Amino acid sequence: MDDQTRMLTGLTGLGGLSQPDVGDPDSVRKQQSLGQPQQDIGDILQQIMAITDESLDEAQARSWPEESPAHWGGSDDPTEGGRAGGGMAGGGLPLNFQHRKHALNCHRMKPALFSVLCEIKEKTDWQTANITQTPGPDRHPHTHRHTPRLKLGIKSAPDLMASVWSHKLYAIITSFLHAATTPHVLSIRGVQEEDPPDPQIMRLDNMLLAEGVSGPEKGGGSAAAAAAAAAAGGSPTDSSIEHSDYRAKLAQIRQIYHSELEKYEQACSEFTNHVMNLLREQSRTRPISPKEIERMVAIIHRKFSSIQMQLKQSTCEAVMILRSRFLDARRKRRNFNKQATEVLNEYFYSHLSNPYPSEEAKEELAKKCGITVSQVSNWFGNKRIRYKKNIGKFQEEANLYAVKTAVDAANVSAQASQANSPATPNSGDTYLGQRSLNGEGLNFTPSLQLQVDTLHRATHLTGGYEELSSSGLFTPHRLDANSWQDTTNPPSVTSPPGPPGSVHSDTSN
DNA sequence: CTTAATGATTGTAG
DNA sequence: CTACAATCATTAAG
């Protein structure tokens, strides 16, 4: 409305006219009947304004014969249905309109008025041009965003994309449409986020290409899937099903992406045409410079390219989600089998004083358990931290494995003693569940005593090979190495209400 | 359903 | 790079 009022007041000043009643046909006619020159100009102005409005409506009616704006995005959202149609509300009678327009065109004052309008327009043009640059209170402020942190737990990336995008497109175009059909608004809003940083869009493009979304046909997609799987350092086992699934989903994303892209391009050209028609139509009653048209087209293209970028970004996100979903090993976690955990635990508890397996030891354990070295590392990392965090909880387990190792040692020693020497300090650096008995009320003997004690019990339980415990088996150099858990040692989480003396300290409640 | 267990990832410090 | 700590996401058990 700004431009109109500006023009109007400017002209009224020119003609010495008092404030006219805008949009009241009766008053127009009344003034007309006076037949004075000033009234004449004011009269023409009234008509121009009325016609300008109506021409818009009419043009709109022509361009959107039976459609709501849903046509653009293919959306069926009913809540926005009346939006662009709002301009239609004041739609006048076409016949009357044509008649008045004709009258205006033939008016004797028209050429003069037209030139005046041109002049004024020229003057005000730079203003609107400046205003154009100001960011409007628009949506999607979250366009550039650094790499999204992948939150998992989304059901399906393609679905997500599909549902979001047609709606988005529709909403944006609708807003633009609405703005465009109201000329004085058009130049002010609908621009805001131009110059999307080139690196950003480049990055997106690259990623889409690498992911095989925007590349050629199928070949790229599967290659990308394979590459992605390889990059994940995946286990050689399960793959085939996951891969086909992944590929299918990727193809889905791809398809959505392309169809959306196509839709945008089509919509863009269609919309450009529409606006051009509008401008051409308006140029008959209002001066429109080629520069203005150019600018308008530029704005449209910018807008659409920004939409396109959003699409790209969204696609990237969808792909990331998809990848994380299928390639993230976390998602297909399987517990290690019994035997594997047994082996690991055995090693852990027998090296409890220093549970840091060397690289070779890890490799061996990995082989024995049928898992990867890094899995072994993970396991020990988790184990250490969890053991340290709540020693009490692991007492039972510790005892159990102490028994195990004791038995093994005993067996070996038995064999050995059968063969020969009675005192067999084998199982070199093993043993045992050291502090595990602290909670039992045994206050405090350093680990040596406790270990001996534990072994006593263990050997007892297993039939008793007492001689082991007295055989100088426990080399003290190990005992002070228990410091791996001394840092941050929590107030010795011992079996909380556990009656002293019970071997089994169930801390599970 | 809730909860515990557990394998994997992420961020930080040395 | 490794270890640790916190946390996530899945699985198993109740």
UniProtKB/TrEMBL annotation:
Domain of life the protein comes from: Eukaryota
InterPro entries: HD (IPR001356), Homeobox_CS (IPR017970), Homeodomain-like_sf (IPR009057), KN_HD (IPR008422), PBX_PBC_dom (IPR005542), TALE_homeobox (IPR050224)
Family stated for the protein in its record: Belongs to the TALE/PBX homeobox family.
Residue spans binding DNA: 329-391
Region (Disordered): 1-43, 56-91, 416-438, 467-509
Entry protein name: Pre-B-cell leukemia transcription factor 1
Biased composition (Gly residues): 82-91
One GO term of the biological process aspect: cell differentiation
Gene Ontology cellular-component terms listed: nucleus; transcription regulator complex
Record-level Gene Ontology MF annotations: DNA-binding transcription factor activity, RNA polymerase II-specific; sequence-specific DNA binding
Organism: Gambusia affinis
Location of the PBC domain: 36-328
Biased composition (Low complexity): 416-425
Coiled-coil parts of chain: none
Pfam families per record: Homeobox_KN, PBC
Biased composition (Polar residues): 30-39, 426-437
